[in-house]
Amino acid sequence: MRRRRGYILFETLMSMTLLSITMLTIHTALQQAIESKGLARDYTTVRFLMEGVFADLEMEHQLHEMHETGRFEPPNERFSYVIDVDKIEVPRPELPASINPLMQEKLAQNYQGWMPRVKVEITWSRAGNERTRVGETLLPPQRLWLPPETQEGAVVPPFAQ
Hints:
Elements: H1 9-59, E1 63-64, E2 66-71, E3 80-89, H2 101-110, E4 114-126, E5 129-138, E6 144-145
Parallel strand pairs: 1-6
Antiparallel strand pairs: 2-3, 3-4, 4-5
C-alpha cells in the first residue's frame, strides 16, 4: 500500500509567510506610489497658486510694505499662505570700465541702494506631514510706496485704504 503524500505544517507556514511578505511589499509600493502622485499634484497646485499671487501683486500699481496671512479659496482651502513685501538692501555693484561715462552716470543716478522683495510662503499638509514652499522675487524700487520720513507713526498708503 502506498503512503499518501501531502503538505506538512511547516511547508504551509513557510508558504503563508512568503505570501504575507510579498503582499506587504506590494501594499507598501502602492501606498508610496499613491502618496508620490498626490505630492506631485500638490507641488503643481502650489506652483500655480504662487504664480497667481505674484501675478496679482504685479498688477497692483504700487506696493507697500506688508505682512499678510490667509487661506486660499476653495477648492484649495487646505493651502495657507504668508505674503511679505519688504525693502532689502542691495550693495552697489562695481561697474565695468567698458561702459561709457554717460551710461555710468545714468546708472549711478538710478541706484537706490535697495529693492522691494516679495516673498510668498505656502504651507499645506499631506499624509500627516506639513510641507512648505517659498518663492521670492525682486521688483524695481519705484514699485514700492514708502511713507514720507517726516511723519511719525504708521502711515497707510492712499491706495490701500
